[in-house]
Request: fold
Amino acid sequence: MNPPSLALTDVTKNFGATEIIRGVSMNVTAGERHALIGPNGAGKTTLFNLISGRFPITAGEIRLDATRLDGLPPHRITRLGLSRSFQITSIFHRLSVYENIRCSLLWSSGYRYSFWHPLGRQRALNQETERLLEELNLAERRDLPAGLLSYAEQRALEIGMTIAGGASTILLDEPTAGMSHSETEYAVALIRRVTQGKTLVMVEHDMRVVFDLADTITVLVYGKVIASGPPAEIRSNRAVQEAYLGALAA
Amino acid sequence: MSDAAVRALPSRRPVSVAVRLWPWIVALLIAVVLPWLFYDWQHGRHSGFMISVFSQMGMMIIFALSFNMLMGQAGLLSFCHSVLFGLAGYSTVHFLNAAGAGELPVPMELIPLLAGLSGFGFAVVFGYMATKQRSTAFAMITLGIVQLVTTAATMFHSFFGGEGGVKTDRVIGNSLLGREYGQAIEVYYLIVGWMMIAAIGMYFHAMTPLGRMANACRDNHERAQFVGYDPRMVRFLQFALSGFYAGIGGGLFAITYEIVTFDAVAAPLAANALLMAYIGGATTFFGPVLGAILITLLQSGVSLMSNSWLVYVGVLFIAMVTFAPTGLTGIVLEHAPIARAGLLRRLTLPYLRIAVPGLIVLFGFVGVVELLSFLTIGMAQGKRLALFGVALDIFSPLSWLVAFACLLGGGLWLSIEARYFKRVWDGLIEASRSR
Reply:
């Protein structure tokens, strides 16, 4: 299956009288790795919340290929094959690591709201869960309540839950935030591996990760896109250097 | 991960059916044998009192388990669970009356199934309203529903029969097993049968996609949306199914007592379910079973001994919520890491050391409560106070002095021992982790 493309047209979001996202247009072409960068408070996470349906947009349009996403509730957007992770780890903390992954697989495996399938007997589902745990390097932690995992492990689980359902468009919100150097390297390799052949949008602060992974970079400052293009172009863009470095220096 | 490392993981072979079934078989055997332990062989008859206690236990086990499908499994505190139980009870009275009149060709053994279906139907209606919200707002809506239905029960006479309730005769002359169901023991076995069916059904439900997603929504309803589930739909279906099982309980209630009044839908019964689930332990599947047994024993046993039995239930509840929020089964499970490390024996002394002041506090507390109660209600009833086989003079200052001394002195001693206990406990947990 070809991964879809994601298009935002003049997307605006107000919280009360405050404009947080001010007419963002952005194109993520099919199969590319797209990084969203910008200083703190630029609205990167908010933009993710709008795309994934967590908040409704005020104006504009969001499309996944031909399907209009804005106005749909999050679970419908997820079912269309767009899956997101959270900056602040969002897992089922009392369920085991294994159950966290299995729950993330249920809908895409077609179980819907079934109350007649005994989970223990679903071979394909359980094998897929095991495979993902191996892939995430969490197999040894499988029976631990997810809330008791270390921070880096929770981040790995967060990524795992996001990709588990086989979504073709993945939104990762600061997947490497707060990780040590070696953990970051591991996470980047993991992201590269599991998003193979998919459309990826990620918010990231670590510039090494951004320039390492991304095919295209979009720079968001105060709710507006100030530049978008391949890494080399962004690196040499004066407006970006000013806005970004200026904000960092402040 | 290397193959060797994978193999080193604990193996997860599916347990054979026989192994998984044995706890159920043991439970069934106990339930079947239980009434015969109180059989009066001399006169050749059953103990009516014990059978009514065990019957009550059976339906309360179903009720508490179905309540916990919401509270423990889905994180939904429902105050209208009694409504599902009670309305199914009312419906069952009408089913029985219709069956008795020959208008409803359903054998007695399947009447509880009809009750379950009507419970399901009511749960669909009320669940549609309540599950629009979750957490506190959900609890408030259910509180509204229970008040609404309790009021309606005294207003609409054709279905509810007003203050006096509706009555029936359970001898409907239609049975698959050729039984009359005139005797309490026959009804008891009907309850046991349906209790097993309902309990196994609910146990199975917890391990289906919907049951698991109910857990997931309890933990993090937002993330559930981002794995493709509509949490509201999960809540609604879970509520509707819990209504089915609560309905079975309500049906058995109607069959047993042959009368249903508005008490069966009212809030105190829902509060009872909360007590049972919480005291037994809402975090485990079998916790509510233990809670239902315990509360029923308190209700029927202690209420014979003391006017103040509700005080004890209330204090027990407060103590559990404060000191052991995971309930009795939770307390037991917390010993698991220590037991696995083989350190359980080191808890013997600390347990003895808190048991002594604990009993003294209990003695003092019971003393104070009973003295107070006898000063008012007891005296009016002309009873004489006897505690633990000792007759007490409620007007003697000595009685009061001893009771208060036990309560306060024991409390002080207990708090010291509790600190020692916690030190030992924390040490053992630490030690079991490092092993």
About this structure: The mean pLDDT of chain A is 92. The first strand of chain A starts at residue 6 and ends at 15.
